[in-house]
């Protein structure tokens, strides 16, 4: 079945979904996005994604042409129209279309696109094995807290990691890990502290990160929000990443360093379990 995609006020089969070649999202990466997980037709962590969407738009002075109710309505409608039991909703808002110019008018009409990706996100085979990662230099711009569609560097680094036989890349700036290519990175120290980089413009403020931190006390972990080095990660009891698509994903190797015994650790596994339980209970 072809997906039904939302494009600028219309619901169309994916083959007919089109935006202008003059769209600034296409020409300048002048667009922001959100990815929200769906389980049992319900939205996971929706309030967090909505709040970040608004922050990203505000940072770029792109207006949101919907009320909260209308936007929630669009999410519900795309789930219903695509019979999306489990998977992801991708929402992108660009500044809109105009003749190519580095300057843009203040009153442009934004372009809005939404589509779904069906997948059984409650059965990720990588949760059992964990990921291997390669460290790579950080090369993105300095406003990573804005969820823009400027994903080329991350995409290139993920390709390079794959060519090197790894699953993902950790981006490193001045010896400290900023993020993985599309997720936040966390370590559990041998004395049970959950160390995660503090919020700043160096990283995206992950919604899953925030939820997992709020659950840390349930596994008797003390949270420490600060930058940590590659060396600390290699020496950690556990390393894991978080994102709306992989939830809590263990990392078992960083470059040549095997983390602990090379298998997903008990704390990451427990955090994954309680994250899913807790977030499904609050899904809308
Ligand atoms: N990526 N950091 C980066 C650079 C990301 O792209 C993402 C999410 C995260 C995790 O944020 P959250 O927990 O809110 O999903 C961190 C999404 C899933 C993507 O681009 O597909």
UniProtKB/TrEMBL annotation:
One of its GO terms (molecular function) is D-alanine-2-oxoglutarate aminotransferase activity. The keyword Transferase applies. Pfam families: Aminotran_4 (PF01063). The keyword Methyltransferase does not apply. Transmembrane segments: none annotated. Its EC number is 2.6.1.42. Keywords: Amino-acid biosynthesis, Aminotransferase, Branched-chain amino acid biosynthesis, Transferase. InterPro entries: Aminotrans_IV (IPR001544), Aminotransferase-like (IPR036038), BCAT-like_C (IPR043132), BCAT-like_N (IPR043131), Class-IV_PLP-Dep_Aminotrnsfr (IPR050571). Pathway: Amino-acid biosynthesis; L-isoleucine biosynthesis; L-isoleucine from 2-oxobutanoate: step 4/4; Amino-acid biosynthesis; L-valine biosynthesis; L-valine from pyruvate: step 4/4; Amino-acid biosynthesis; L-leucine biosynthesis; L-leucine from 3-methyl-2-oxobutanoate: step 4/4. It is an enzyme of class 2 (transferase). It catalyses: L-leucine + 2-oxoglutarate = 4-methyl-2-oxopentanoate + L-glutamate; L-valine + 2-oxoglutarate = 3-methyl-2-oxobutanoate + L-glutamate; L-isoleucine + 2-oxoglutarate = (S)-3-methyl-2-oxopentanoate + L-glutamate. Belongs to the class-IV pyridoxal-phosphate-dependent aminotransferase family. Acts on leucine, isoleucine and valine. This is Probable branched-chain-amino-acid aminotransferase.
């Amino acid at each position: 079945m072809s997906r039904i995609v939302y494009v600028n006020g219309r619901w169309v089969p994916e083959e007919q979904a089109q935006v202008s070649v003059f769209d600034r999202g296409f020409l300048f990466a002048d667009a922001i996005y959100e990815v929200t997980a769906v389980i049992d037709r319900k939205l996971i962590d929706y309030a967090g994604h909505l709040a970040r969407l608004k922050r990203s738009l505000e940072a770029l002075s792109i207006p949101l042409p919907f009320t909260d109710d209308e936007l929630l309505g669009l999410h519900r409608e795309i789930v219903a129209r695509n019979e999306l039991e489990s998977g992801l909703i991708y929402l992108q808002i660009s500044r809109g279309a105009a003749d190519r110019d580095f300057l843009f008018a203040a009153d442009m009409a934004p372009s809005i696109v939404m589509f779904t990706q069906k997948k059984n996100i409650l059965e990720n085979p990588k949760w059992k094995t964990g990921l291997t990662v390669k460290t790579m230099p950080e090369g993105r711009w300095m406003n990573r807290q804005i969820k823009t569609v400027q994903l080329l560097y991350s995409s290139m680094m993920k390709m390079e990691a794959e060519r090197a036989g790894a699953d993902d890349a950790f981006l490193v700036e001045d010896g400290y890990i900023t993020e993985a290519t599309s997720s936040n990175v966390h370590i559990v120290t041998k004395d049970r502290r959950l160390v995660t980089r503090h919020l700043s413009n160096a990283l995206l403020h992950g919604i899953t990160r925030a939820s997992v931190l709020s659950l840390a006390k349930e596994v008797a972990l003390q949270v420490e929000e600060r930058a940590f080095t590659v060396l600390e990660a290699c020496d950690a009891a556990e390393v894991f990443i978080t994102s709306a698509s992989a939830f809590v994903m263990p990392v078992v190797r960083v470059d040549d360093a095997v983390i602990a015994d090379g298998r997903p650790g008990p704390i990451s596994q427990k955090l994954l379990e309680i994250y899913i339980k807790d977030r499904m209970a609050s899904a809308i």
